[in-house]
Amino acid sequence: MKKQSGFTLIELMIVVAIVAILAAVAMPAYQTYTAKARFSEVVNSVNPIKAQVELCYLNTQAFTACDLGASGEGWSFKAAAADYAAGHVASISVTDGKILVTADTTGGLNGQTYSIEPTATNGSVVWALSATAANITCRAQDIC
Predict the structure, then answer these.
(1) Residue 11: CB partners within 8 Å, gap ≥ 6?
(2) Own/partner pairs for 69-77, CB < 8 Å, 24+ apart?
(3) Global pTM?
């Protein structure tokens, strides 16, 4: 008669315990990763507005005319912030060229805000981060 081979109950329980521990460690990291991915959508939503602010500044030589709903020669802000908002973006406002985007409250986001402010340097527009989301960390070279 052949000797039976296989795993014992203890060996199987040890494997299940190891898998459970790995899952418990990975879950918070995954949740943070998905929140950062969702917040990147909030950050990327400012790109079309940044272009309009830059065109506004080049046309008017001032940021005071660069508000939501304004328009000029070759540039135009849509009248409603909802036209720019999509996905995880709850609201967008533009005041004197400063862009403020608020995230929604789903998928690990808690209504964090992302705000960038333009300054004029030698006839061009330079963007500076003026506020960022809590618990969403960025590297120093990133504007997020």
Answers:
(1) none
(2) 76/52, 77/49, 77/52
(3) 0.71
